[in-house]
Known about the structure:
The structure is a homodimer. Chain A is an alpha+beta fold. Chain A has helices at residues 2-21, 27-33, 40-52, 69-79, 87-97, 103-118, 171-185, 190-203, 209-224, 251-259, 261-268, 319-338, and strands at residues 56-57, 66-67, 121-125, 134-143, 146-153, 158-164, 231-234, 277-280, 292-301, 304-314. In chain A, helix 8 (190-203) packs antiparallel against helix 9 (209-224). Chain A binds chain B through residues 101-104, 135-136, 138, 140, 142-143, 146, 148, 150, 152, 154, 156, 158, 160-162, 222, 234-237, 239-241, 243, 249-252, 254-255, 258, 340, and chain B through 101-104, 135-136, 138, 140, 142-143, 146, 148, 150, 152, 154, 156, 158, 160-162, 222, 234-237, 239-241, 243, 249-252, 254-255, 258, 340. Chain A binds a DNA duplex through helix 3.
Amino acid sequence: MAHEDRRLQVLRAIVQDFVSTNDPVGSKALAERHDLGVSPATIRNDMAVLEEQGYITQPHTSAGRVPTDKGYRLFVDRLSAVKPLSAAERRAIERFLDGALDLHDVLGRTVRLLAQLTHQVAVVQYPTLSRSAVRHLEVVQVATTRLLVVLITDTGRVEQRVVECSAELDRDDVAELRSLLNTAFAGARLTDAAGKVPDLLDTAPPHLRPLVAAVSAALVETLVEPGEDRLVIGGTANLARGLTDFPGSLRPLLEALEEQVVVLRLISEVDTGGAVLVRIGEENAHEALTGASVVSVGYGTEDRALGGLGIVGPTRMDYPGNMAAVRAVARYVGQILAGS
Amino acid sequence: MAHEDRRLQVLRAIVQDFVSTNDPVGSKALAERHDLGVSPATIRNDMAVLEEQGYITQPHTSAGRVPTDKGYRLFVDRLSAVKPLSAAERRAIERFLDGALDLHDVLGRTVRLLAQLTHQVAVVQYPTLSRSAVRHLEVVQVATTRLLVVLITDTGRVEQRVVECSAELDRDDVAELRSLLNTAFAGARLTDAAGKVPDLLDTAPPHLRPLVAAVSAALVETLVEPGEDRLVIGGTANLARGLTDFPGSLRPLLEALEEQVVVLRLISEVDTGGAVLVRIGEENAHEALTGASVVSVGYGTEDRALGGLGIVGPTRMDYPGNMAAVRAVARYVGQILAGS
DNA sequence: AGCTGGCACTCGCACGGACAGAGTGCCAGG
DNA sequence: CCTGGCACTCTGTCCGTGCGAGTGCCAGCT
């Protein structure tokens, strides 16, 4: 239908205007700023229908209309094309991420870059341990009965854990332990690590068994458990910009960001197909995220997802632009990490 | 003088009342809430003098008085005793920090604890690399021409760095490199590391020299340079509580916190004697910190300072309580890190 | 049918004046 | 040197008004 179609154009125009001005938008302003080819009166009729359908709402009688979560959803799904990045933005991405020294550095730069491109809070997940494999295990004695076990994954993560031992250790024990662990685990996916422990215990010389058991238990416990996945968060200062966007205050949101676990769940639940995922307002099903949207995507190489990254901002955000930025950054990061 | 003395009591009362109520405090309220033994009229005279001397000011005619930075300074220096922590707080500290697994964990818990105790933003510096010594160096090959060098310090820090090599590497080279580096650097203070490089190069077999040079250069560059010192920051949600405390907005402050370098300077410049340092408002000499105070102290063992920790909050804060919390937490952390 | 211009209506908000309350400075008296 | 009293100043608040934006509806036009 022609009606239907124009009504959607009206919705798109409302979203665009409201995102850029933060003022409820009225029929007259719409007719002026967008070539819809019809008069304000007609637009009003369309708006009445859109409101009826729940896509827009008016804060109070005789103010303009504002998109609802449902309205944004429709906009994202059917009315917006992912905006290509400008040449300057592409260059900025390259410049920003080139010359990173290690994983920590790459992710730190990524989060700053993303925050800067989108003017929102940026979140980057460290490559999931559960999808990583062991590259090397190092064991260092830090006290007579204490070991520091360092795990280096093929994704570049370096994780540490102190293990308390019941008996005193000598240098040879430690060296043997190290080589045992490495032969047993090298190249193994971390999810498979737990399964290898019995074998390892069998092959270990008897006097080392308690030690091996303690260390592998610690490894499995801390490194394979979910929740050990880390986040880098940046750009929280951007929250303070649009104070009007977060009615109560931004305190609950800041708390949720520090909590990490909430955000982690949002960021890590990414589509494996590499599509950008958008969660709008209530869809996040978390009180602190009232009025907030999350745009996230997985990053990694073609054959392997490493983790997720994304942004958190007010529902009133530039979805096409932010989706493009998130996707582009994820691609670059995947590329860089693949090469290292 | 009796006058002088009472005038200071008045100042103390003003600071205390203003901190707890956030309202400019007037002579009448002061006389009611504090047993100063004199009438409001007399207090008014004292207040006039205090204002003359620059310790207090009135936001506008006929509002109460508010302490100036100078007033807080005097309060901290001469009018307040460090408030002892309650038993509950001591228990909370122990409970919170016990059972930490490694350095990362200890510092993470510390920052949450401090934020919770003080209701301010908490900042904890990782043990300074420049005051740490090498416990172990690990070298792992991650690509044909790429090495991951992992440094483990005696303070429990684990730092990584990727080094690009000009020539292809084989397994034996890497093993030899590892043992060379460890014999050369083990136990050495990181500040002395640079000095040991020439010796190391002399003892290295010729075919490894370029490699050794590259790796040690990278080590010195990234690990000894200042600026590589890391911070853990937590409790930013607390900033959103007293929005009134940060007039413009809290954006510049959030930016400064993300900047890290600014805060790092403030936190790391601690008194070696172990005294709690308080910087009030303008004393911080940084625009973003207008209206903010920093309470910091060094932590470490008796014979060695490791780093600094502290809090950042509005000038209108509970100095005695926060100073006590910061000091107590630093002591516990020092203790824990000494034992590991 | 569907669009359009016109019109009456509804609110929120900004402006302005009046008012109450808090707090001060000063002064004369104890 | 302190105190009670008093006049003064200022801000925040409340209320009433007017304006403007925006809407919904209707009759007429294409």
